[in-house]
Every structure is written in structure tokens, then in C-alpha cells.
Prior knowledge:
Strand order of the largest sheet: 1-4-3-2
Helix content: 40-55%
Low-confidence stretches: 8-22, 102-118
Number of strands: 4
Distance between the termini: 26 Å
Oligomer: single chain
Mean pLDDT: 77
Structural class: alpha+beta
Largest sheet: 4 strands, antiparallel
Strand content: 15-25%
Amino acid sequence: MSRVTVALLLALALGCQTYQQNTKENLLQSAGFRMVAANTPERIDALNNLPAGKISRVDRDGTIFYVFPDAAECRCLRVGRQEQYDRYRRMASERNQNVLDTTGADTQSDAFKGYEPW
Length: 118
């Protein structure tokens, strides 16, 4: 494989990852998660040590929070409670269902008449 091809594939993969990340961040914001600056030692520690790209359940003095460390975009924590987390899960599920609905479209439509792709 040529270096140009490898570079293009790498750029495409990184672009897709960035798009997915931005989509997740947009969903979190739409669900009501707040952006909290990582500007204290405790928050910086959470930003650096919570699993990247994942929402973690954090118990702080008996109160449950859901925290998404966002080191790449804003160097902040996106924080929500149970209500915001539930809303995020519903929205993500609906988004995934919409993707499945589109990719599962009927291939017998007029657009494919006379075309045998395989």
C-alpha cells in the first residue's frame, strides 16, 4: 500500500472518530450535561484518570453524578445527574435506531431497479 493511501485511510479514520466524539458531546449537551472546567486539582485528576470517551458513574458524598471527561475538545468534564443520563441514553438510542432504520432500507425500491450490486 502506498504512503498516500495509508495517510488517507488514517485521516479518514481520525475524521470518523472526531465526528463520533462530537456527536456524543452534542448529545450530552442536548441531554442537559453541564460543562465544568477542569480547573482544580480534583477535577484535573478526574479529567486525566476517568476512562476517555466513556461516561462514568461517580459517587460524591452520597450523590451520584455521571461524568464524561472531555480532554480533547474543551479540557473539561461534562457532568449530569440521573435525569440527564437517562435523557442521554434515550436520545442515543433514538439516534442509533434512526441509523438502523436508514441502513435497513428496502433494496427493492425504484432506485435499485435493474442494478445488481453483487
